[in-house]
Every structure is written in C-alpha cells, then in structure tokens.
Amino acid sequence: MARVFVYGTLKKGQPNYKHMINTAKGLAKFQGRGRTVEKYPLVIAGKYNIPYMLNIPGTGHHIAGEIYSVDEQMLQFLDEFEGCPDMYQRTLMRIQVVEWEGKGGTGEARAAADGVLECFVYSTATYPPEWVGLPYYDSYDSSGKHGLSYVLRESR
C-alpha cells in the first residue's frame, strides 16, 4: 500500500471522488486530512478549470487535502488518470496530519503521532509560465467562490 495526498477533484464531495471509491479501479482507504508542510501555489487553470499544484516549494500556501492509503492497482489508475508523467508528476511530499482516522500498523501510528507523513502527490513542473501569475488557493472546491467550475472529462 502507498500513501497518496489528494487536494483537488479527487477529494470527498468533489467531481472525481467517484474514482476513489470505485473498487474496480483498486482500493483507496481514507486515512485523514492534512496539508503540505511546504508552501506551494495551487491554481485553477486551463479551459477546463483544473486544479494544479505547481511544484514551486516555498511559494503560495500550505495546501489542504486528504490522505489515502491505496493499493498498486489504484496507484496505477491514478497515474493514468492524472496524466503522469506528462501533465502531473507523482512525487513524495511531506504532509502535516490535521485529522487522523486511519487504522493500521505501528509504523502508521508512529508517523501520524509526530504529525508528518510522506505521501505521493500529483503536482506539476510542466506548466505554462503565466500560471504562476494566477490566484493561489490553500484549498480547492470545484464550486468555490472562485466561480471556476471544473469541467468533467465526459463533458469535454
């Protein structure tokens, strides 16, 4: 099992959460909520209003999201879904645990106890330079005040 931190459309209540609970794609178990230890820019960009975490550590905000434990099948699905490695790159990042529901071995308990976990995160280092000038968010909601509604793949 691998740990994945999601901050965009894959979170509970967001348009692509259905993929996280579709066991035909693999297993994803919600573990808790967290935020990035480093600051990153989270922007909403492109004609489909997709959330992107730009891989520029030290700029932006501590990004809020959810921590999942996923099996290899789900990790492979997520790589494909996220267009990895072209659109997003899957990298390890340090995530501060805000709220922990996860059950598991002593390793997980110890990691959560000190408050920081290493999780895979889909961020991007391959983006148009003008995206750096977009507004930065600390949390993503597809129907947030930003007014930039996410366009589902089925509707593109």
TrEMBL record:
Sorted keywords for this record are: Lyase, Transferase
One family name in Pfam for this protein: GGACT
Might you give the EC number(s) for this enzyme? Answer: 4.3.2.8
- List the GO cellular component terms: cytosol
* The family this protein is said to belong to: Belongs to the gamma-glutamylcyclotransferase family.
List the SUPFAM superfamilies.
Gamma-glutamyl cyclotransferase-like
**InterPro entries to which the protein is assigned, alphabetical:** AIG2-like_dom, GGACT, GGCT-like, GGCT-like_sf
Query: Which segments does the entry list as coiled coil?
Result: none
Q: Can you tell me which residues form the catalytic site?
A: 82
Q: What is this protein called?
A: Gamma-glutamylaminecyclotransferase
Q: Which GO terms describe its molecular function?
A: gamma-glutamylaminecyclotransferase activity; transferase activity
Primary role: Catalyzes the formation of 5-oxo-L-proline from L-gamma-glutamyl-L-epsilon-lysine.
Give the catalysed reaction(s), semicolon-separated: epsilon-(gamma-L-glutamyl)-L-lysine = 5-oxo-L-proline + L-lysine
Top-tier EC class: lyase
| Any one Gene Ontology BP term | modified amino acid catabolic process
Q: Which gene encodes it?
A: Ggact
* Entry's transmembrane regions: none
Gamma-glutamylcyclotransferase AIG2-like domain ranges (all copies): 4-122
